[in-house]
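Example 9 (inverse folding). The structure is encoded as follows.
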C-alpha cells in the first residue's frame, strides 16, 4: 500500500522511506492485500569466441566476440515507492523491466616489455538491446495523477526506446615496473589507462572520458597502493539534462606483514576530499535566463579503515 493509505489507516510512516515505522504498520502495509504469484521464464544463447595472434615475440593481437546479459537489480524491479519529503523525490520500481542483451566486439594490441611491463590499445564496439537506465521526471511525465506527490520528482528505471544502441570506445593502458631504480625505490610499479566511450545516445551515469593513474610499491613485508581516478563530465539525468562535473579522486591502501599468518592493513579514501557537484542546465524564465547552476552538491569527506587480518 502507498504511504498515504497507511497513514489514513492510523499508522505512523517514515517521511524518508515511505514505510510504516511499527510492526503492525508494516504488516498492514505489506500483508493486507492478497499475495500475487508471478512466474517468468526465458532462455538465451551466449556464444563467445576469441583469436590471438603473435605478431612478434613481444606483441600480441587479440580479437574477441561475446554475447552478455545484464539483469536489473531486485530493488529496481520490485517493492513499494520510496518518498523522500526533504528532497521531494519519489523512487519507484519498474516490474516490467526485462534483461539487457549486448553483442560485444573487441580488438586489443599489446606490446610487452622485460621484465614486467606493457603498453596496449583496446577498441570495443557493443550493440545493446533493451538498454535500461535510471531517469528522473515530473509527476505528469511519470503518469502520476494524485495530489500527495504532485510537485515531486519521480525517479525510476526504464528501457531506452529503439531496437539496439551502439556503444563504441577505446582504451590506452600501460604498466611499467621501475625495478632499475636504486635501493628501496626498485619496488615501485606505475600503471595507468585512459578510456574514451562514445554511446549512440546519452547514457546517464556514463562518462565519455575516464583516466586512471596508480603507483604500487612492494618491498619486504610492506605493500602500498596509491590509486587516482579522473572522471570527466557525465550525464546525471536524461530527462532533466543535469550533469555531474568532472571529479578527481585518490585512495591509498596498504598492508604490512607482521608474521607469516598476520597482516596489518589500512585504507584511506577520498584523500583529496573531492565533492560531487550535480549541475542543472540553464533555463529561460519570465525573469530572464538562468545559467547552469548547482542542483545537488555532495561532500563525502575523508574516511579511513585500519585492521588486523589473521589467516589460519
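The amino acid assigned to each position is listed next.
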Amino acid at each position: 500500500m502507498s504511504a498515504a493509505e497507511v497513514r489514513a489507516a492510523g499508522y505512523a510512516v517514515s517521511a524518508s522511506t515511505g514505510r510504516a515505522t511499527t510492526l503492525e504498520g508494516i504488516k498492514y502495509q505489506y500483508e493486507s492485500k492478497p499475495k500475487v504469484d508471478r512466474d517468468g521464464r526465458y532462455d538465451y544463447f551466449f556464444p563467445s569466441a576469441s583469436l590471438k595472434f603473435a605478431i612478434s615475440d613481444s606483441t600480441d593481437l587479440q580479437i574477441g566476440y561475446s554475447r552478455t546479459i545484464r539483469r536489473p537489480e531486485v530493488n529496481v524491479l520490485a517493492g513499494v515507492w520510496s518518498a523522500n519529503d526533504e528532497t521531494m523525490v519519489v523512487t519507484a520500481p519498474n516490474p516490467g523491466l526485462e534483461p539487457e542483451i549486448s553483442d560485444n566486439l573487441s580488438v586489443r594490441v599489446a606490446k610487452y616489455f622485460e621484465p614486467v611491463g606493457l603498453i596496449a590499445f583496446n577498441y570495443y564496439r557493443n550493440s545493446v538491446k533493451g538498454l535500461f537506465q535510471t531517469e528522473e521526471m515530473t509527476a505528469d511525465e511519470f503518469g502520476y495523477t494524485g495530489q500527495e506527490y504532485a510537485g515531486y520528482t519521480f525517479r525510476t528505471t526504464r528501457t531506452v526506446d529503439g531496437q539496439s544502441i551502439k556503444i563504441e570506445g577505446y582504451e590506452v593502458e600501460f604498466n611499467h615496473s621501475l625495478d632499475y631504480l636504486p635501493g628501496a625505490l626498485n619496488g615501485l610499479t606505475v600503471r595507468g589507462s585512459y578510456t574514451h566511450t562514445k554511446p549512440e545516445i546519452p547514457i546517464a551515469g556514463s562518462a565519455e572520458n575516464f583516466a586512471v593513474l596508480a603507483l604500487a610499491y612492494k618491498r619486504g613485508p610492506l605493500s602500498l597502493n596509491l590509486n587516482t581516478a579522473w572522471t570527466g563530465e557525465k550525464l546525471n539525468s536524461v530527462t532533466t539534462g543535469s550533469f555531474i562535473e568532472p571529479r578527481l579522486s585518490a585512495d591509498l591502501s596498504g598492508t604490512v606483514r607482521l608474521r607469516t599468518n598476520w597482516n596489518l592493513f589500512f585504507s584511506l579514501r577520498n584523500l583529496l576530499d573531492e565533492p560531487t557537484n550535480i549541475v542543472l542546465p540553464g533555463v529561460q524564465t519570465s525573469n530572464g535566463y538562468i545559467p547552469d547552476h548547482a542542483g545537488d552538491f555532495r561532500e563525502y569527506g575523508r574516511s579511513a579503515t585500519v585492521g588486523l587480518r589473521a589467516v589460519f
